[in-house]
Write a structure and sequence with these properties.
By secondary structure, the chain is mainly alpha-helical. Helices cover 72% and strands 0% of the residues. It has ten helices and no strands. α1 packs parallel to α5 and α8 packs antiparallel against α9. The termini are far apart.
Length: 194
């Protein structure tokens, strides 16, 4: 059952909602816009705030949904496995030949569903850094780094902290090009347009 939940969660996480939503709204191929990423930040570069918001909700939702269903059926271990699997599915979706998003929104949904105080801390960190820098990628990196710390502070435990640290490492790996652009001062800012 644990393996089944992991597979189903991976398939759920693999659904590229940003791509589906932008195509349904006639906004073109998201992979040819802005950074080419399938996440909400790049959807915002199409100029459609409703599409970006819908993508954000769906990407957060698939992580949270996987965790909550697995927890209700099999318990806490299954919830953690399902959350990691959904996150992995978003980053490496089977439907797009394993070329997916950067995992930030799905990571957030997973963390909120696993231990909500940790999730709120991550949200607050993202908002604070984004407000100061107007760089979504920088905010995502700092928020991801903060998650294991919040897990230790808010009672998530060392096992959860280790899992979140591993997921944060994947987020850093997926943001390699962004990190280079941040260092060069060429990273696009929030609301910069197409």
């Amino acid at each position: 059952m644990l393996i089944l939940f992991a597979i189903l969660s991976f398939l759920l996480g693999s659904i590229p909602f940003g791509l589906v939503i932008t195509r349904a709204m006639g906004l073109g191929d998201l992979r040819k816009i802005g950074s080419g990423n399938i996440g909400a930040t790049n959807v915002l570069r199409t100029g459609s705030k409703p599409a970006a918001f819908a993508t954000l909700i769906c990407d957060v939702g698939k992580g949270a949904f996987a965790v909550l269903v697995a927890r209700a059926v099999l318990g806490e271990l299954a919830a953690q496995v399902a959350g990691v699997a959904a996150f992995a599915g978003h980053c490496y979706p089977i439907y797009l030949k394993f070329r997916g998003g950067k995992g930030v929104a799905t990571f957030l949904g997973t963390v909120l569903a696993l231990v909500w105080p940790v999730g709120l801390g991550v949200c607050a960190t993202w908002l604070a850094v984004a407000a100061m820098s107007r760089l979504s990628s920088l905010a995502a990196l700092v928020a991801a780094m903060s998650a294991p710390v919040y897990a230790l502070l808010f009672g998530g435990g060392s096992a959860l902290a280790a899992g979140l640290a591993a997921m944060a490492a994947v987020i850093f790996l997926r943001h390699k090009a962004n990190i280079a652009r941040i260092a060069a001062g060429t990273e696009p800012r929030i609301g910069a347009g197409k």
